[in-house]
Specification:
Two copies of one chain form a homodimer. Chain A is mainly α and about 220 residues long. The first copy, chain A, has eight helices and no strands. Chain A is elongated and about 65 Å long. The first copy, chain A, starts with 5 loop residues before the first helix and ends in a 17-residue tail after the last helix. The model of chain A is unreliable at about 80-90 and about 215-225 (pLDDT under 50). The interface between A and B is large, with 53 and 55 residues. The structure holds a DNA duplex (30 and 30 nucleotides).
DNA sequence: ATTATAAGCTAATAATCGTTAGCTGTCAAG
DNA sequence: CTTGACAGCTAACGATTATTAGCTTATAAT
């Protein structure tokens, strides 16, 4: 029988520690010796669980393919494009948008697995075309498509105004992605990034919400900076 | 006397080839042997020019500190914040904005040195705090500040409407930065990215230009999908 | 022309790399 | 209790790493 107690546990810890180290320094800069000692075993013992260093890396990638987590996994509200015309989002508020982004950021940055894997792929994205494609798809396009669907529904329901939901989605999502990238390399700037995103979301909402009809007159003479 | 003929030439070629290789695979994955053979010499000969592999890397970084090139170097129109209130940008057009972005992209992607260094730093950004800071500053904050200054002037002159030039700048710049990142890993998508940026810039201009007063009525009843 | 320096080379260094062989103790199944 | 597989270990492998020593050749200054 296959007992999952000791062996599977060690195997998982190897994957965990390897991902942690790869996300810090990249695949080439991390030796199997270093992975092993992080797990608390000797390097040759790794080969009881994986037949090569490359296989460890591959297993990590394969695992995330199974998990298929995205930025959007961290959001509680989900929309599929097919359901988009049901008017669930009629009354979406500035506050709701802001909250969604906070949830997204929270998940993307504080889920260790998610954030480590993203940092690892940031380092390894140029290694081959497959990784490049995966990176763009996973960390940008999925999020843009998701929001394009959302905005398409919101436009249809009249909640926001706008003609091009794809462009709108890119403009909405791009600052979010960039702030995540900043936090990946400068975690100490998280508060600042959240603040900038709050300002972004609120400006976005006010710009495209029909409640706020923006005219040249409205912002004519500003008193002082 | 210090003759700059042969030695300085080889030294520069070492830097060039090293940067090319580092930008493809990262520092750790490139051996001095591989750099040397790209230059056309043997590995030990490298040490007549640099006393270590690390020094080659450091020299590359130091060189870009001297050059101080940014995204904005590729733009012909320059604004310093002090000159910002001179009404040079009164009549800025959608076409001008679109052209500026095209120039920016052209420079960022097709200047070999600039694009290779950026890709190298993308790989090495997590190596230490200095690189992390440099990356954010060089590839995002500078560009945001530049455009914040531009938009501040444009708001003051009434060319565009808006209250928060910093947020506006982030929203304007973020899609540009992201499209550059896509092209860095998927060069075959350049045309698509340029198209998306064109749509972004035009949407941005139309949204914030006072000529286009956008109201709920204007986009009220859309006939069909 | 002489001479010194510079820039290449080969050979060899120690260190570290990923990986294999083979031994030992643990522990669950029979 | 016996047995066998499993998961750890040490020792060692060859390959590759960055780097040094020392020789040679080309070149530039005197």
């Amino acid at each position: 029988m296959k007992q999952a107690s000791k062996k599977e546990d060690t195997k998982q810890r190897i994957l965990d520690e390897a991902l942690r180290l790869f996300s810090q320094s990249g695949y080439d800069a991390v030796s199997v010796e270093r992975i092993a000692s992080a797990v608390g075993i000797k390097a040759p013992s790794l080969y009881k669980h994986f037949k090569s260093k490359q296989e460890i890396f591959d297993a990590i990638v394969a695992e995330t393919y199974r998990r298929y987590d995205t930025f959007t996994d961290g959001i509680d509200v989900h929309v599929s494009e097919s359901k988009a015309d049901e008017k669930v989002f009629d009354g979406i508020s500035e506050e709701m948008l802001a909250k969604k982004v906070r949830q997204l950021i929270e998940y993307s940055l504080h889920d260790e697995y998610v954030s480590r894997f993203r940092r690892m792929m940031t380092i390894e994205q140029f290694r081959n075309a497959e990784f490049a494609d995966m990176y763009s798809e996973r960390y940008l396009e999925r999020l843009v498509r998701y929001h394009a669907g959302l905005f398409r529904a919101l436009i249809k329901s009249g909640t926001i105004i706008g003609e091009d939901p794809d462009t709108l989605a890119l403009e909405y999502v791009a600052p979010v992605v960039l702030m995540v990238e900043i936090c990946d390399r400068q975690p100490e700037r998280e508060a600042e990034c959240l603040k900038r995103l709050e300002a972004h979301v609120r400006n976005f909402y006010r710009t495209y919400s029909p409640h706020m009809v923006k005219t040249a007159e409205k912002r004519g003479g500003k008193s002082d900076g």
